[in-house]
TrEMBL record:
It comes from the Bacteria. This is Carboxylic ester hydrolase. Gene3D superfamilies: alpha/beta hydrolase. Pfam families: COesterase. Keywords: Hydrolase. InterPro entries: AB_hydrolase_fold, AChE-related_enzymes, CarbesteraseB, Carboxylesterase_B_AS, Carboxylesterase_B_CS. Belongs to the type-B carboxylesterase/lipase family. It is an enzyme of class 3 (hydrolase). Its EC number is 3.1.1.-. It comes from Flavobacterium arundinis.
Amino acid sequence: MKNIAIAIILSFTAISYAQQKGPQVKVEQGILEGVVLPSGIQNYKGVPFAAPPVGSLRWKAPQPPQSWTGVRKATEFGNRPMQKPIFSDMNFRSAQVSEDCLYLNIWAPDKKENEKMPVLVYFYGGGFIAGDASEYRYDGESLAKKGIITITVNYRLGIFGFFSHPELTKESPNHASGNYGLLDQNAALLWVKKNISAFGGDPNRITIAGESAGSISVSAQMASPLSKNLIAGAIGQSGAMIAPTERVVPLAEHEKIGVAFAEKIKKGSLAELRAMPADKLQDEAWKEGVFNTEATIDGYFLKKSPVDVFAAGEQAKVPLLAGWTSAESSYMGFMEGQYPNPENYAARVKTVFGDKAEEIMKLYPGSTQVEVIASASALASDGFIVFGTWKWLDTHRRTSGQPVYAYVFSKARPTVPGEKAKDNMPPALPGANHSADIEYLLGNLATNKVYKWRPDDYRVSQTGEDYFANFIKTGDPNGKSLPKWPVSKPEGEMSIMDINVQPKAHKEQYRERYLFLDGYFGGKK
């Protein structure tokens, strides 16, 4: 009897242990064990896609990840990249900042035999100086429930991700330096391409997406000869690597910036720079006027500026869905603290645009306070991020031979109790501000506890997420029960889908403005 009792206990123990084990997947480096979420979605967190870029690997292109023996637990987010806590809307689930940060996270539906699911690889925003793949608003469970393997990716930021120096260029087998954060994204795409079949994904149906710096990254990956053949589609939410949004610096100029930084902090050699503790290096780079984070035309990741790549039709020839929010920036972004009356507005336009002020006043009129607030808001938004996104869409539709879908997201978040205009200024224009669309379009409203979401918010989120899901699956956002989203043809005006409570498509309204800005910014190169 005693032996039987022991056998029963051991049997129950084995069953209990088996029940505690998570799903396991064999990738190139070894076996990963994740967790099954209550929804049934499998989740693998903190998966290394490259070797830790520390020590002698600081400021080197990402190296292959190390293999492991046994089973590696993939149940916790990896470290977030080195950064300062500068954006209050970033809520991380990772434990700490570290140079050892090259990890990705996977949300996958239960794999069915012989099934090949579409894949989304998402890059976070944060101006290339902040952000992390663990943020709640980028969570991939909602899209995974729609049959899409969803992946969020870490990449190096700031001084760690965008530092050039002649010694770095010389030691590089590619004779390049400076684009390490973008190369990290490419390394993640290569890892996904090699390994996603093990999760039930289709390596030939990888869509890349991102918001702000993440959207800028999408345009850069499309322009890079290293990545353009790895992707089947692209989604951009507010941003492109096109001036004035994002300046791309020639390598020689970028190296001079790096040398100047080293001189400012009194480090005479690359060895000394690499020997600096990460937090000390971060502190030095963060001082005002010491270092500016920019991408570079390094001859390797970028052969020439992305705008020239797209103009020549040398980018990834894939469907593109991209757009911006209706209130990317407020009028204060242009007025710089001045009251928005016609006199102050006219003076600001003259200061900013000089001999082009008269043309600007025709395109962005300001004869009343109402007009000033609208026009100053448009100038701030266009100069910040709208024009660059428009130029990306407009050029791609003309040179790619692929479908292009443009949108403006205009659903304003619920107001937060106690919010007031500052310094007795008039209120900003209503609408969706920069980054407000993330939770909606990725199906993650419930993760943001700041706002009291209403039924209309969830309705817009469902519509926007369905558009995204359809595009990721087919290259076309349209589907049953959704308002028709027209494709933008190579000629004529673009069609814009207004994503709001009542989604509707219309022809672009401000093409004349953008054509003027195209000549204005192009002339300042």
